Each structure stands twice: as C-alpha cells, then as structure tokens.
Give the backbone structure.
Amino acid sequence: MSPPSLPARRFRISAPMVIGLMVLVAIIAGLVFWQTRPKAPKDPYRTAAVARGDLTKTVSASGTLQALVTVEVGSQISGQIKQVLVDFNDEVTKGQVMATLDPQTYVSRVNQSQANVAASNASLKQAQANAAKAKADYDRAKFLYDRGITAKAALDAALAAWKVSQAGIDSARASISQSQAAMAVNQVDLGRTTIMAPIDGVVVDRQIEPGQTVAASLSSPVLFKIAQDLSKLEVKITVDEADIGQVKEGQTVKFTVDAFPEDTFEGVVTQVRKQPETSANVVAYIVLAEAENPGGKLLPGMTANADIVVEQRRDVVKVPSAALRWKPADTTAGQRGGQGGGPGAGGPGGPGGPGGPGQGAGGGQGGQGRGGGMAGRLLAELDLDAGQKTKAEAIFAEARQKAMSAGDGDRRKAMRASMEAAFTQLEPILKPDQKAKLVAIRARMAAQQGQRRGGMSAGVVYVLRKNKPEPVAVRVGATDGSNTEIVSRDLKPGDQVITGGGPRAKLQLQGGGMPGAAPPRVRM
C-alpha cells in the first residue's frame, strides 16, 4: 500500500523579504551610480582674471587723534578755589574768566604793601627835614668859623652831619621804590586769583572743583585743558622703521575710527619726525597728519587706523599677488631635483654639481668650472634630448668664452649679456613645453639677480591654456598687497592667471635631490 500524498505548499513572500530586496537593489544602484558618475577633475586650478584699474600702495599704521593746539591752563599761585565758571565742552574766548581763587590773603598782602609805601614816604619826609636842619647847622658853623669864633673841628662835624642827612634822603627814596615793587608783586598775585582763558577754544578737561586747594609751590597745577580748534584735528601716527622710508610730507592719509567704522576720513602728512621712539627693542617714528573734522564727529584721543598712500598708479594692468607666488608642482620638483648630480655640460672638467657624478637623473661629468655647472643645471631643467643637448652646450660654451674675454670690471655685465644672447639662440631648438620652461627659468634668474628694468623687477605668472599652466614673463611694479601691477606683451585684461590649486608635487623627486631643497641659485 503506497503512502498517502501530502498536499503541495504555496511559496509566500513575506514583508521582511520585500524590504530586504528593496534595500539590496538600492545599494546596488548606489554603487553603480558611484562608479559611473562624472568625476570632477582632481586638484583643479584656481584662476583670476587680469584686470585694468587703479592701484594704491599704502603703509598701514595706528595712531591717535589730538587737537592741533592744546593749552593747559594752570595756576601760578596757591590758594583755595572759590568759583569754577566753566565746564567740560564749554566754548571760551581769550580773557574770559574760568575760575577764581580766594583772594583774601592776597588782598591783605596788597594792603600791607600799600602801608609800607606810605611809611617809606613818611621816612623820606623825615630824612628831608633832617637834611634841612643839618644844612642850617653847617651854614652856622661855617659863619662862625670864618670869623674865628669856632674851631675847625666843629665845622667838620657839621659838614659830616649834613652829608649823612642827604644819604638818609636817598635811603628813604630807595625804601619807597622797594615798597612800591613789593606792592606791585602783591597786586599781580592778587590778579592771578582770577584764572582766565589764554586762547579761544573748547574746554576739553577740567580738574578742579570749588573748595579745592591748589598748591603751586613746586609746579604749576593744571586746572583746565583748552583745545583751540576742533574743526581740524591732528593724527599722531606711529610708523614702523621698515616703512618710514616711504612716507613723505604731503602724502594722503586715509583713516577710520572705531566710533564710526563705516566712515573714512582723509588727511595730509604734515611732518615726519626724525626722532625715533623705541619700545621693547622695536623702533618706530612719529608721523603727524592734519585732517578735517566734518560735523565734529572726531574727538581728541580716538584711535585711528591709518593708511598712508605712498604710491598711486592709474589705469594699470594688475593681477592678484597670489599669481606671482604660484608655481606648478612639476617646476618646483624639477628645481629641487636639480640640486642632485650635475649633468654633463660642456667639455671635460671636474665632477658635475654638488652631488658628484652619476647622482640623479642625467648625472655625468660636469662642465668647465662654475659656468659649466650652472649651464648644466639649467639644461637639466629643460629636459633636452641628445641632439638638443649638444647644440645647447655649444651655445653656452661660446657664451662663456665671450664673457671670459671681457675685462675684470665688465665681466659680470658681459656674463649677463652673453647669457641673454645664449637663451635667445637656444629658443629656436626647443619644443613648445621646453620653451615654456625656458620662460620660467629666465624670469627666475632675473628675480634672483634683482634686475631692474624701468623701475620694475622681473617675475613670472602662469596662464591656464588647454588645461596646462604656461609661464609668461612679466615685469612687476607696485603692489597693494592684494594686487600687483604687471607689464607684459603676452597678457591682456581678461586673461585667466593661475592663483592656486593644481596637482601636487610627487614625493619622489627627479634627479635624486633631497625634498625641501631650495632652487639652485644662478650666478652670472
């Protein structure tokens, strides 16, 4: 007997299975999208447009606002303040009474001196009377002596008494003058109990109150400060010694204050002081500038953040300063690698560069002396093939011979001229990428030598063309820190110069040079 058959089971898909399948499909779709998505270029270049406009070079410094003329009003005598007639911010005119001191002591001194004058006058009258009596006694003694009645001694005594009485008159008169002088001094001191404004202006400081005692025995105490004219103010700017050579009288000063950060005020440099100020071994110089005070916004004592305009260039071609600092990674690596072995350049001679023969790419026998090593390093950066290398070595050998034939005084100048001529002869045998490298090399050499052409130094910027940086030699002028003036026949406003980004340099450098080594310095 066969076993009974079991009923067939239906396959059911549960909800968790459905959710799991959906998650799996989503993950697969995400992976496919991730692998097939359009990838952004690695290490994109950052560029900026060459522009035309004005360029202002400034020297930044901080300073303090102060009145053009500030007078400290003091007291020449001691005493107690009786009245204070002005307050802060009051406008005063010359001769206006500002305060008074208790005058009682000085009134008494004047009265005493007047009494002394009166006493001196009385003494004079007494001396005059005594002199008249002495004169009469002398006349009588002389009359008697002439008739032989009295002795000569009596006449002499009368004469002496008369002369003494006359001296008494002179003494009394001198005493009167002395008393009058003392009275005048006391009257002046009495007048000084009234404190008056010496100039027209505004009271910016008051340091006294009624009842306060002023002691002027050692120094004159300051009671008030008057600013003569606040329609104009003076900016006292502290300029670092590194920048003071650029600052001249008559230059424009633009500054802001914390109280009005949105407003920019202007002034003119009126004085550059030659006396240095040293603080913590930092040397600075004081520059004074005069500025208008529109609406009376500016107040003495405010801190000014000043920019002194030392140079202005109108309608010039300019690029961001970062474009002059940027260098492509391969150029930097090549410059560093050139510090390795010196490749063969020129005829027989000693070992190559500092690394000796055979070190780094293309290491071999060096050139002839210092010039051969220099030419070898430059040619290594150009990555020449064998044919180009032979022609280049001949060009540089001829340049060295011309330079060596010059006199000692002109040899350096002749070397620069011969190298420039050699570069010009070298250019036709180079490939486009090698020509670009040559432009960068020449710009770097000019910068190292500090050459000046028409007041401008040499530099190089890189233009992005066909997604590759191409060097363009430029002459560099004034800069405001953010932008720099340039002159170049190959650049015009609107061109895009590279300011940053790009692929990074590889860790393994060509030529076996050590990472971080500086570019070779070129001597000519």
